[in-house]
Amino acid sequence: MNVSVSPAETLRAALGDLLDGLPPRQAAQAVARLIANYRGATPTDAPILRDRADVAAYAAYRMPATFGAVCSALEAFADAAADWTPGSHTDVGGGTGAATWAVSATWDGTRPVTVLDWAEPALALGRELAAANPALREARWQRARIGPSLSLESADLVTVSYVLNELAAADRAALVDAAASAGQAVVIVEAGTPDGYARVMEARDRLVAAGFRVAAPCPHSAGCPIVPGTDWCHFSARVSRSSLHRQVKGGSLPYEDEKFAYVAAARFPVSPVPSRVVRRPQIRKGQVLLDLCEAEERLDRTTVTKRHGELYRAARDAAWGDPWPPDTEG
Ligand SMILES: C[S@@+](CC[C@H](N)C(=O)[O-])C[C@H]1O[C@@H](n2cnc3c(N)ncnc32)[C@H](O)[C@@H]1O
Prior knowledge:
With 330 residues, this protein is α/β, with parallel strands linked by helices. 37% of the residues lie in helices and 23% in strands. The strands form two sheets. Strands 1, 2, 3, 4, 5, 6, 7 and 8 form an eight-stranded mixed β-sheet that branches. Strands 9, 10, 11, 12 and 13 form a five-stranded antiparallel β-sheet that branches. A hairpin with a 2-residue loop joins strand 10 and strand 11 (287-294). The mean pLDDT is 91. The protein binds S-adenosylmethionine.
C-alpha cells in the first residue's frame, strides 16, 4: 500500500527527531534564551540565531507555527489564483525554511527553491530538515544579507515570512522592492500584532505602487479601510503543540492559535474574494454575526439569521479568515 505522508506530518517528524538526544531541560533553556533575545532590541547588527542549539530551539519551537501561518496565507492566495502554480520559489530571510515547507504543502510537484538568510547555522539546519522532503532536496541554501544592496534573481514566487520585524525601515523597503522586482507573486507574513499589521500595510502599499494586485486577504487593492490605530487586520492558524511547547509554556492544551498578518500579491490577474471574515464569527441563538472586509473598501458587520436558510448553515460553519459568501461552485 502506498500511503503518502503530507509535508506537515513529515516536518513534524523531522522536528521531533531534532530534539531526540537533546535533554528536555536543555531544549527548554535554549528556547527561553531565544525568546529573551527576540524580546530585546531588533533589528540587530548580527544574526540572533548564532549556533546549532539556538537554531534547533527556534525550529522546534517556532517552525510549526510559522509553517502553519504561511500555509494559511498561501491557501488564501492559491484560492485567488486557482490556475497558477509557482515554477520557482525564493524565500528571503528563510531561516530554517518554514515557508519552503508551506509552499511544498500548498502546490504539488518540485520547483527550483532558493533560501536566503544571513545566519549560516539556520541555513545548515534548514538543509538538514529539508532532506526529509522530496520537494526540497534540491533547494539551494545561500547566505545573503538583507540591505540596500540586496538583489534577487527572478522567481515566480517570493516569500518573506516573519522577517520584516527584524529589519530597520530602510532595509524593509529595500527587501520589499527587491521582492517586487524579482517575483511574479510576493507573499509576506508577519506576527498578528498591531506592529506586524503596520509592517504588512507598509509592504502592501509598496507592492501596489510597483504594479501588483492584492490577491489576499483583501477583497481589493485599494486602501485598507481600517483607521490606523483603531484596529489591526490579522488571522489565526491552529497549530498542534509539541511536548517542548508544553514544557516551555506550561498548560495542557494540545494546540495553540498562531496569530498572523499577511499580504499576498501578484503581477498577474487574480480573483480576490468578494468579502472576507475578519474576526471570529459570533454564534448566537438563531443568528451568526460576521465581521466582513468588503470589496467596496469598507468593514461591515452582517447578521445572518435562521431565515436565511442555506446561508445561515454556511455562516455557522464560517471561520475567521474565510471568504464570504461561501463559494458555492465546486
Ligand atoms: C523570525 S526568523 C523567520 C525565519 C523563517 N522565515 C520562518 O518563517 O520561520 C527571521 C529570519 O530572518 C533572518 N534575518 C534577519 N535579519 C536579516 C538580514 N539583515 N539579512 C538576512 N537575514 C536576516 C534571521 O537570520 C532569521 O532566520
